[in-house]
Amino acid sequence: MNRPTVAMTVAGSDSGGGAGLQADLHTFAAFGVHGTTAVTAVTVQNTVGVTGVHEIPPQIVADQIASVVGDLRPTAVKTGMLASAPIIEAIATAFREHGIGRGGTIPLVVDPVCASMHGDPLLRADALAALRDLFALATVVTPNLDEAALLVGTRDQPDAARALLALGAEHALVKGGHGTGPRSRDLLTDGVTSWWLDAERIETGNTHGSGDTLAAAIAARLAGGDTLPDAVAVAKRYVTRAVATSYSVGAGHGPVGHPT
Ligand code: PLP
């Protein structure tokens, strides 16, 4: 029987189609993985910005996870925009119940989405503590420098990684894409071994959805059985190609591409 690899994203919808669960599903498809979703919030969004957020009731988010896991049996899960503390708490309970994340059998990628590239909030300010608590379940947590500053108070990549591991994450991937200089360098560490992942910085305004795409690519490869360092290395190469194939659509920041 021809059963595809299945992955799940727990994330918000971007009506503009560039980021959020839409980017995740494009990425899963590019890796040949069947993508499933638990929607946390519907954003009213285009390439210019976010003008509204409708949060899904926490129980409905948890029910989507239970429904998908009970039937389609994803072999990796990622989280993106989680919107509020009650949603994060419902998700954490569902993850523990269904063996998702540390202590379970299904690897978990936590992309700690806090705001869009335009600065529109995608997480309530009072939900930071709940998001930090979720890191204890993460196989890997993938902040950019702005998220690292907000969550652990530093933009220094080794210091931020240490703080994320202290919160219970198995691996930290602190991304350097929001820095400056000709190279985009990400630090991956499990506290014992560290890997610097280096790529050329591609100057473009069209990077909408790049963070989601990286985390989804990691999840897609973990779902297929890669080790975490291998999954991250493949995902980093993929997101570099995604940024290289980004395009303009709408009046604002265009999305990354999803090359196969
Ligand atoms: N909208 C949603 C629903 C998202 O999940 C994200 C990022 O995770 C964004 C927007 C922002 O994407 P970007 O910062 O790449 O513009």
Automatic annotation (TrEMBL):
Record key words, sorted: ATP-binding, Kinase, Nucleotide-binding, Thiamine biosynthesis, Transferase
CDD domains in the cross-refs: HMPP_kinase (cd01169)
A single GO cellular-component term on record: cytosol
One GO MF term attached to the UniProt entry: ATP binding
PROSITE patterns: PFKB_KINASES_2 (PS00584)
Residues in Pyridoxamine kinase/Phosphomethylpyrimidine kinase domain copies: 14-256
Superkingdom, taxonomy of origin: Bacteria
Pfam families the UniProt entry points to: Phos_pyr_kin
Catalytic reaction equation(s): 4-amino-5-hydroxymethyl-2-methylpyrimidine + ATP = 4-amino-2-methyl-5-(phosphooxymethyl)pyrimidine + ADP + H(+); 4-amino-2-methyl-5-(phosphooxymethyl)pyrimidine + ATP = 4-amino-2-methyl-5-(diphosphooxymethyl)pyrimidine + ADP
Keyword flag Transmembrane helix: no
Pathway entry: Cofactor biosynthesis; thiamine diphosphate biosynthesis; 4-amino-2-methyl-5-diphosphomethylpyrimidine from 5-amino-1-(5-phospho-D-ribosyl)imidazole: step 3/3
Keyword Nucleus: no
Protein name: Hydroxymethylpyrimidine/phosphomethylpyrimidine kinase
Organism of this sequence: Cryptosporangium aurantiacum
